[in-house]
Amino acid sequence: MKYLINDVGKHFSFPGVVVLDADELTERVHAWNGWEHLKPATTRIVFPGNGANEVRRRLGERWLSQWNIDTVAATRFWWPGVTPSAVVGQLMPIGAFDFETTDVVIVDDVVSSGTTISKIRDRNSIWMPNARWHVVTWIKQRACRLRMFKSSFFGTEVGEKTYRVPINSLSTLLNNAEVAESYARRNFPNPAAFLTVLEELR
Predict the structure, then answer these.
(1) Using CA atoms, how far apart are residues 65 and 88, in angstroms rounded to an integer?
(2) Do 61 and 127 belong together in one domain?
(3) From the CB of residue 189, how many other CB atoms can be counted at a distance below 10 Å?
(4) Arithmetic mean of pLDDT, 140-152
């Protein structure tokens, strides 16, 4: 089974594709009861890389204004059959400690392997020694590992513990023809049919 995040507000359907609505996933993130146990003054919400930008936009600046917000650079590398890797940035200047933060919540669109968010925690936790780390995401692959996090929440869970399933956003496929063609070739016996449906939305 393949999954697409519908983040463009247009109807899309294709055989073998499960379409997940970005607004519904965002509502589930808003409704997470874990927020009630966090203190806004001592909690940082961290958005890593480009994928988290859409989640941030949909959460809304009004809701986010109660929290301390950070972004951190995160570049993911993955090829079929190869262990995922990532390069991540640092939240604090080197040598600067933050003893006030009690909780850090990494918010992302998709957590597939857990590699990126784990690297963010590993690189930054030494500078925030009193912080507990959490992860909140629209979509989590069952095969990912989140052992070092105090808590985790996901809008939906996909795949199996032994393998991951293809996930992409509809906006990415509509805006990047090269990515769309690669996605179609790798996932469908008739790539042209899938690309035709995409073209109708452009």
Answers:
(1) 25
(2) yes
(3) 7
(4) 94
H or E element: which one contains 45?
strand 43-48
Classify 117 as helix, strand or coil: helix
Band (8; pLDDT cuts 50, 70, 90): very high
Report the SS3 class of residue 63.
Answer: helix
pLDDT per residue as tens digits for the range 49-108: 888 999 999 999 999 999 999 999 988 776 666 666 788 999 988 889 999 999 999 999
Tell me: do 24 and 38 sit in the same domain: no
Residues 193 and 175 in one domain: yes
**Could you count the other beta carbons within 10 Å of the beta carbon of residue 159?**
19
Interacting residues of 173 by C-beta distance below 8 A, sequence separation 6+: 4, 179, 180, 183, 198
Q: H or E element: which one contains 181?
A: helix 177-187
